[in-house]
Amino acid sequence: MLSAREAVRTLPSYHPPLGGRDGLRLDFNENTVGCSPRVLQRLRQLDPEQLARYPEREPLESVVADFLGVSPSELLLANGVDEAIHLLCETYLEPGDEALIVVPTFSMYRIYAAATGAQVISVPAGKDFRFPVKDVLNRVTAWTRLIAVANPNNPTGTVAPQEELLRIARSAPAAAILVDEAYFEFYGQTLLPSWRQFPNLFVARTFSKAYGLAGLRIGVLLGDPEQIRSVRRVSSPYNVNAVALACLPEALADQAYVRHYVSEVCAGREQLERAYESAGVTFWPSQANFVLARIGSSAFIQHMRQRGILVRDRSSDYGCEGCVRITLGTQEHTDRLRAALQETFEELGLGQGASRT
After folding, report:
1. Buried b vs exposed e over 16-37: b needs ≥16 C-beta within 10 Å?
2. Confidence of residue 47 (pLDDT cuts 50, 70, 90)
3. Which fold has domain 37-253?
4. How far is CA 265 from CA 201, 272, 291, in A?
5. How many angstroms separate the CA atoms of 141 and 138, rounded?
6. Region for residue 29 given its phi and psi (left: phi exceeds 0; alpha: psi -120 to 50; beta: otherwise)
7. pLDDT for 141
8. Backbone angles phi, psi at 23, to 5 degrees
9. How confident is the prediction for the chain on average, in pLDDT?
10. Is residue 123 a contact partner of residue 146, using CB atoms and an 8 Å limit?
């Protein structure tokens, strides 16, 4: 009888609660208003012949490389950062190898690494979800082949100091070090292109968040040219679809749109944190487009849904018992959120004697 590999049979399942998402979507860290109008115009211009041809990834890789100030040989476009993670695991991990992750974090690091048969080592974050660089370094062994760090981290919004990430790259030269900068635009600091000092370092970016292209699934993996060539061998030549490739140049060209959206998100983030502080709700200051707070009641999520606002329960993540993550969007959406929060807090008697961390 046909059976999947043992590593696959024992994988944890990831089932994002995407069904029934009617209302203001503040649960999946998506752009709350969508992409640039220039992208929509480009979509309207697509013709049947473009969709009938296999997509050409390399020309757009040159466009993205120019935008990021790197060489085309230093990057690979991928079907979202998810695929970039998957390709790294397939390129560098074998059964018996070790992959290190700092928990809580993005769950797909564990899933893709474990699928190869590698052992996933979870290193708990420090107090207030601080990055535990010493603990990570202490867990590096001769079998460590991948260390994945989201920076800023999801679901906490916290960041790892760049010098600590480079210290890890220096201390583990035989391991692929992935720094996932999916929320870069809301933070503003990057390790790009530090792989010129550390050939084992990779940086991933997405166009799902600030650019509003989550539905098109396009991201980029950056690193040392020789290492990127190895990853490219694992990748399908047609992994990024033609629609995404056609639209991304327009999204990149409209930086005014991106800057405006990011500025509203960052302003809303500050307003939400102030609202939590005023209500005495424990939260963690964030550098991403969301804020994690310990609200401590599943009823909170239902009351917010009744007001047409979706928020994300993160209580099953390591160290996040009773926590809810809320995405920020435009100022209009933040105003709706704050009004709903105030009403919900009053109804549930929440926000009595907590604080920022």
Report:
1. eeeeeeeebbbbbbbbbeebbe
2. very high
3. Aspartate Aminotransferase; domain 2 (3.40.640)
4. 29, 10, 11
5. 8
6. left
7. 98
8. 125, -165
9. 95
10. no
Q: Please report, as a single letter, which amino acid is at residue 5.
A: R
Encoded tokens for 201: 């370092």
- Best CATH choice for the domain 6-30+256-348 from the list 3.30.1300.10, 1.20.140.10, 3.90.1150.10, 3.40.50.1110: 3.90.1150.10
As a residue count, the chain comes to: 357
pTM here is 0.95
